[in-house]
Amino acid sequence: MPWGYTVPAVAAVLVVVAAELLVVRTGLFRRPAYWVTMVIVVAFQVPVDGWLTKLSAPVVRYAPGGITGWRFPWDIPVEDFLFGYALVTAVLVLWERGKTREDGA
Q1: Is 34 helix (H, G, I), strand (E, B) or coil?
Q2: Rounded distance, CA 75 to CA 81, Å?
Q3: Predicted local distance difference test score (pLDDT) of residue 74
Q4: Which residues have a Cβ under 8 Å from the Cβ of 11 and sit 6 or more positions away?
Q5: What's the pTM value of the predicted model, to 2 decimals?
Q6: What is the mean pLDDT of residues 4-25?
Q7: What are phi and psi of 85, to 5 degrees?
Q8: Cβ proximity of 78 and 31 under 8 Å
């Protein structure tokens, strides 16, 4: 089992989703703008991450035992998408939480 990168990537997604659904509860996942944002993020992530991780001439290398080995598309480790999702979603959840506090003040 790849512990080095896969487990933290999956854990990051689970923590952020649980925080939104159970604690912060901004309703972010119900907003079409959130999903459009995620499509835009992936649209930029694929060419950049694809260039950085391409197996023919990688700029970034991963220890084979640290990832699942699943790569899509253009040699991008799936774990990169998980971390990207968790990072962007965490920022948006915190942003929305901050807006809610400002509106109530």
Answers
A1: helix
A2: 12
A3: 84
A4: none
A5: 0.86
A6: 96
A7: -60, -45
A8: no
Sequence-ordered list of residues with C-beta below 8 angstroms from that of 96, at least 6 positions apart, any chain:
24, 26, 28
Exposed e or buried b per residue across 63-101, where buried means at least 16 C-beta atoms within 10 angstroms of its C-beta: eeebbeeebeeeebbebbbbbbbbebbbebbeebbeeee
State how far the Cα of 86 lies from the Cα of 54, in Å rounded to an integer.
23
In this predicted structure, the answer to whether residue 105 has a pLDDT above a threshold of 90 is no
* Average pLDDT rounded to a whole number, residues 56-71: 90
Q: How confident is the model at residue 102, as a pLDDT?
A: 62
Residues 6+ apart with CB under 8 A from 20: 26, 28, 29, 89, 93
Distance CA 75, CA 56 (A): 9
